[in-house]
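S., here's the first fold you wanted:
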Amino acid sequence: MITAIGTGTGAPLDASAIDALRAAGLVVGAGRRIEAARLLPGAGGAAEGSGVVVPASGDPGSFGIVRAFAERFGPAELDIRPGVSSPGGHEEGFVADFAADFVEDFVVGVGAGKGVPAEEVVGLVEDTLRDAGISPASVTALATVDTKAAEPGVVGAAARLGVPVVTYTADQLAGVDVPNPSAAPLSAVGTPSVAEAAALLLGGGELVVPKRKSAPEGRASMATCAVVRRSYQAPLTSAPPQDLNGTGTAIKESE
């Protein structure tokens, strides 16, 4: 059983939340939440197999943790303890239902010409997200072909968003069906699609914004992007590791 507890709402934990922390065999979460849990006498000291407790910042579900757990392990394995500030009070299940309906994560696929200015990629990504009504805070990663991992424009966009860059080989991207293949990337890097294919390969969900080109004044476009709503139906091991420092570190996905 995984128990998710809302914390950091400005109100003290109730007795049931404190009891859950004390009885947990494993407490998982951000460093400051773990440290707070350690201050409870006997917290995390139960026998192995007695359950996992996740102290979430605010109400569990606000950042998709409930949705991810539910889709990976099943709703029956979750015990949701909303923070007292939540609209549902302490009604179990409210936050899980809310999160399933409204919390979304997205990935952005990026294609970049050699020497593309960082501001061109950043501007394209930001404009695309704004026009689609997508908050930059809901983007979890940028994806591109491995030969473009060090392009300043790609690295700069990832750093601006505070997300990692995930790369794929041209062969991996060439195997993805896309609505807008092109001869240009096929000639340049060996795949008919970079932005759409990379976003689809990483996100595994719906292509919500097809390939879009930058529009600099006085010259041809040097950047493309596409946006995919991330699916959590794939096995957990298929998700790439995250660069928690948000420096745009490249993570290469091997075949």
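And the second, which I think is the more interesting of the pair:
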Amino acid sequence: VLQGFSCADAKLTDVVMHELHFFLGPDWVITVHEKAHLAIEAVHKRLDADPTGTLGRGVDFVAYLLADAQVDLAFPVMEAFTDALDTLEDEIFESPKRGMMQQIFELTLDADYPLAELESRYLTKIEPVIGRPIKANRYATQSAAQVAYSADWDIDDLRVTLSIYGGPRSSHGGRATAGLFVNLRDELPIMARHAAALSMRESALWGALTNPDVLHISQLQTKLTPFSLQPWAVQSDPVRRRAQKAFYKRDLLETPPLVSHRLTANEVMLWRHSDHLFVSTQFDTVQLVTGQTTLEVVNILPARGGGGLSVHVGELQITDVPGSRPLTELVEAIQAVCAVRYRYQETYDD
């Protein structure tokens, strides 16, 4: 069995894993593969061009040609991947931007395999290149939106994570069953200046806040959670959570203590300070700006689950039960005090 990969996209956004089986006999070679294979085509051309120098050397040499062609196909992808990692690392430390902090490579295999087989099939292709993972976890899943398996590798200053999805997802090149995510191992030094800028902005907006003017409070049935790339960081590493918010979110602010202490995890407040309007959960806040802030209402219709109602106020996402009256009243209260850019859509929870 030969393992390999190819990529039609020069940006490496969609990588296809290949598996090639072959059987040797006294005077024959049989190959088994799911789809047309470039390595097979290359060997066919070489056999036709020089039968004496290829077939004349026996079936062992033909098998060698197959393996060599498979490796030749993989080398350009590996070189491009290595170059991409080097470039990403250089750019992050020289002039970091939000879009650089994570690179995603969508992966698919050359055939459809059940979820139970994907772990071993991906690892047998990746481990020969970057070694065994430093840790791995399996998770129970109910949909493609969830991750069934994850594995991590540390390469210099970067963390590479393989995530196998609970089902096929749509990607630029078709359907992806896994993703390879490249992140910094320690992002805090890069994010420090963004966290400092966030503090300056918050100080300018409400530095002298003593008594916020409360315009509306909605109490939801659903407990709201703060923005965080790692759920464990909410309580155990608030400095990291704030730094990530400052870097990845342009307009999401930390809720000031005087407002946060008035709210439970189920409540959302619309409030005013000076000439500024804000919407806050217990953890996160957005400023309302006339003609600029987007207010998007998403009615999530039941499909696999029970549905729900989600409201996006700029970068602040608030979700509650289907037909939530408190959330609807919050939308109405926002529209009454600020000319936001309103959008409505319906989708399914599949």
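Why I say that: The longest strand covers residues 158-171. The radius of gyration is 26 Å.

Talk tomorrow,
H.
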